[in-house]
């Protein structure tokens, strides 16, 4: 369970977030939609505890996982080491099993730089779920993927969410991604940005506009 | 392979030039040819004190190198990641970077005395600013994304340092090590020249007073050869290992 009450977040004199309150329970996935630059990633960094400079409070669990826009892997370590180093105490068998689950079992011993972007994103997903997170944060995790690969990733993520049942927070500007994964949706908009219901007319997404199913 | 051949050819050309210059000078006591150095080298190696002095200098180089790398790396990392401390220490760094090595050596001997501590301190103080400046630039370029990842997944500081920071710093550290060892042994020679009673620098001082050019060259080239071996057998393989993932 996560409970956020962000009264204000500013960068210098510029206030970017204002009066943001939400809760996400275990097994729920809250999608936050909004156009680029509105402050979605800033909000996630606050929730994850990466950025601590804000007014308000956030209650978050101990085990957190984050799937970044870029895979953010250790390029000098093999795929399986990317899981083992981040999750201390994780067994090699459990790590290998997660690589099997995410469809990159044959890439265990290769460096991320030798993998395609789709495979790197699968590895980032494996790294997030293998720790059995209580809170999972997804920051546009399917951006820059072709439609077919993005669809496969959406299915995989939906399966893993169903099994692990973390409280999940998905940021996207693609309403179709939100439709597939989220149990609830809110829209981040305005200056400074605050949360509100998603309007029926929302269609901010690249994939949505390209008609991906 | 072609690159290796080119290196050997280049080296042979340098030796050829040396032989030609020596022949043109026609006085082995001023500029002996490489062949003239073989006999005194062998004599010093088998019957003389070459190995003893080589050992003393090597010991000083290794100790100074380790201390300078450790302190310079720590200082550089702190300055590169903590802007407030960087502002504070930056003027110190500029002063020490521009302080001539000879001044530091003389001051250390004057303040601490003509002993081993002063010798090592002089070398280390000369090298720390260079290592710190290089490492600081590397630390400034550390990936903020990987830092965020490590924060979210609560990586232990030791794990973060070993598996996230040091691999990013690998090229900087090997560069600092390679340039460091080259500079340190030259400073060690000056330190020995000025204030020690053993080591290659001391022997060079001795034979300088005797105007014995061949022996100066014998001792100098013995240490150069040792440093080339360290470079080829330790530093280059370490650099190759650190950057193996880039070539994969």
UniProtKB/TrEMBL annotation, chain A:
<keyword id="KW-0067">ATP-binding</keyword>
<dbReference type="InterPro" id="IPR050166">
    <property type="entry name" value="ABC_transporter_ATP-bind"/>
</dbReference>
<dbReference type="InterPro" id="IPR003593">
    <property type="entry name" value="AAA+_ATPase"/>
</dbReference>
<feature type="region of interest" description="Disordered">
    <location>
        <begin position="192"/>
        <end position="213"/>
    </location>
</feature>
<keyword id="KW-0813">Transport</keyword>
<feature type="domain" description="ABC transporter">
    <location>
        <begin position="2"/>
        <end position="213"/>
    </location>
</feature>
<dbReference type="Pfam" id="PF00005">
    <property type="entry name" value="ABC_tran"/>
</dbReference>
<dbReference type="GO" id="GO:0016887">
    <property type="term" value="F:ATP hydrolysis activity"/>
</dbReference>
<keyword id="KW-0547">Nucleotide-binding</keyword>
<dbReference type="InterPro" id="IPR027417">
    <property type="entry name" value="P-loop_NTPase"/>
</dbReference>
<protein>
    <submittedName>
        <fullName>NitT/TauT family transport system ATP-binding protein</fullName>
    </submittedName>
</protein>
<comment type="similarity">
    <text>Belongs to the ABC transporter superfamily.</text>
</comment>
<dbReference type="InterPro" id="IPR003439">
    <property type="entry name" value="ABC_transporter-like_ATP-bd"/>
</dbReference>
<dbReference type="InterPro" id="IPR017871">
    <property type="entry name" value="ABC_transporter-like_CS"/>
</dbReference>
<dbReference type="GO" id="GO:0005524">
    <property type="term" value="F:ATP binding"/>
</dbReference>
TrEMBL record, chain B:
<feature type="domain" description="ABC transmembrane type-1">
    <location>
        <begin position="54"/>
        <end position="234"/>
    </location>
</feature>
<feature type="transmembrane region" description="Helical">
    <location>
        <begin position="61"/>
        <end position="80"/>
    </location>
</feature>
<comment type="similarity">
    <text>Belongs to the binding-protein-dependent transport system permease family.</text>
</comment>
<dbReference type="InterPro" id="IPR000515">
    <property type="entry name" value="MetI-like"/>
</dbReference>
<protein>
    <submittedName>
        <fullName>NitT/TauT family transport system permease protein</fullName>
    </submittedName>
</protein>
<dbReference type="GO" id="GO:0005886">
    <property type="term" value="C:plasma membrane"/>
</dbReference>
<dbReference type="InterPro" id="IPR035906">
    <property type="entry name" value="MetI-like_sf"/>
</dbReference>
<keyword id="KW-0813">Transport</keyword>
<dbReference type="GO" id="GO:0055085">
    <property type="term" value="P:transmembrane transport"/>
</dbReference>
<feature type="transmembrane region" description="Helical">
    <location>
        <begin position="92"/>
        <end position="112"/>
    </location>
</feature>
<keyword id="KW-0472">Membrane</keyword>
<keyword id="KW-1133">Transmembrane helix</keyword>
<keyword id="KW-1003">Cell membrane</keyword>
<dbReference type="Pfam" id="PF00528">
    <property type="entry name" value="BPD_transp_1"/>
</dbReference>
<keyword id="KW-0812">Transmembrane</keyword>
<feature type="transmembrane region" description="Helical">
    <location>
        <begin position="206"/>
        <end position="230"/>
    </location>
</feature>
